[in-house]
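Recall that a protein's primary structure is simply its ordered list of amino acids. Everything else, from secondary elements to tertiary packing, is in principle encoded there. The following example makes that idea concrete.
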Amino acid sequence: MKKHLRTRFASRTTPRVIFLLLVAALSLSCVSPAAAQKEKKKKTDTAASTDSSKMLIPLTDEQQIDYTLSEMLGAWQLGDSEKLRQDYADDVAIVNGSWAPPILGWTNYLAVYQQQRARMQQVRMDRTNTYIKVNGMVGWACYQWDFAAVVDGQQTESQGQTTVVLEKRNNHWVIVLNHTSLAPRVPQATPANAPSGQQQPAKPSPRTNSRCSLAICSSAASRKI
């Protein structure tokens, strides 16, 4: 009797077990391709990301210095002292174009810059004819600049030249010396076709001396229109 019941129970249970195993196998067969496809896509994305990072061309030291100069002048125009700080060394020396002692150290320079920048509006500083040279961890650059702004309520324009010395510290180029000078204004020549004996009226000089010494362009605002 017991044997008969066991046989009957086993005959009923076996089809159910087989059915459950088939369901589980089908579920795995459906999930596995999706998981494999997802894993494959993840690996592909990772490989693409790695390839794109390898495609980035590193800048040469000359290009890095040129970028530093552009970043520095842009921050100077906007009055962004935090951004400007990134391009100057703690022990920077600033030599301006006026008869004044050099400004030593970032802290001293920042005080002068903020004081003078507060007097200026609508600032524009264009850099041209840049020459850059690198020798190991030291580089230097010289360029011409054209400055225009409203200083103390008056329109101001100046031109000059700047020479900077940079050092590569912690894989970043920073300015350790900035020497800026103001170019003298060349007087306009008398036209050759002017009638003899008739003197051309003298035009008032568009620049007059004023006390203003800026660090990066210490003489830029020293002549006013």
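Helices lie at 2-55, 61-78, 81-85, 106-117. The radius of gyration is 37 Å.
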